[in-house]
Design goal:
mainly alpha
Amino acid sequence: MNDAASSPRYTIWQMVLYMLRLGTLGFGGPVALVGYMQRDLVEQRKWISQEDYKEGLALAQLAPGPLAAQLGIYMGYVHYRIPGATLAGLAFVIPSFLMVVVLGWTYVRFGGLSWMQAVFYGVGAAVIGIIAMSAKKLTQKSVGKDKLLWAIYLLLAAVTVITESEVAWLFIAAGVLVWLLRAPPKWLSKSSLNAVVLPQISMAGSIIGNLDVSLLTQIGIFFAKAGAFVFGSGLAIVPFLYGGVVTEYHWLTDKQFVDAVAVAMITPGPVVITVGFIGYLVAGMSGATVAALATFIPCYLFTIIPAPYFKKYGKLPGVIAFVDGITAAAIGAITGSVIVIAKRSIIDIPTVVIALATIALLWKFKKLQEPVIVAVAALIGLVLYPLLHP
């Protein structure tokens, strides 16, 4: 364990307050959120080393579950272990959970949120600008001028754009490739354990999900599978959720599901918190709570259980090479996801202008706060959307 781990420059409560703020004001989804943690915790406050951040990003990308939430949990773990991970994770998730529950109550009480599409029209375009800048910074910091890492980065970006999904085995393959080329390992066979075990567990989860159980138990089982078996960013969970809540269980209509995704994008914090909104629509506050717990507990466990091994062996040359490969793959996939999301949010000239203006403002004014841009974009959406889509 390095010296930084034994003498942190911050208290556990400072980390909790930071995560509360990020969960309350962190717009832009997983790509932006991991970028904020890099900027705030590594570059500006210097609470977390670049090496620890890269380890956390690699672990979050390797394990199933929402990317930003797992990285936040790992940031809490770095110096304060399980208490830090637990408190950081709760602080990051609770603000946005409360917001989506309030929106769910409003949605049910008033028969839908007609203004939501208008807000999303503006915010969705601004979010593209925000995450594009975050992806740029992550690329500069973690890929640099390394030709091998650039090749992996570009390949994963292209695969993500073409398939519109994140291919989990490619992350592991990227890590193994860099490992083999730069620090040939002696225990390579262990790296395939997750790839062998997880699909079999997933099959067992599918069998359990087919049993005739109560509604809350069904919600718990379904969202536990969503949290445990969907790799990549929070955005990767959306197709899985659609297949379950709309197609399989018929809990929501297509329009309600689209509104749920819009709620995820116009609220701060992890995108996957839309599970709270969906759970509320299906079974009220109990449904929201069960859905959120079932989704986030697996990702919490998938972070804290392997974390000690990442800490213990993280400085070995083979592990550093493996982490470098996965990090390059992760950031490539993140960059590709910017294009995938843009195809859904950039739909006409005004949205193009909003996205480009966001990039220009963030490029020129380094200290400009993203929530200010999101608020302005929401107001623009409320004005323009009714005029362009009467």
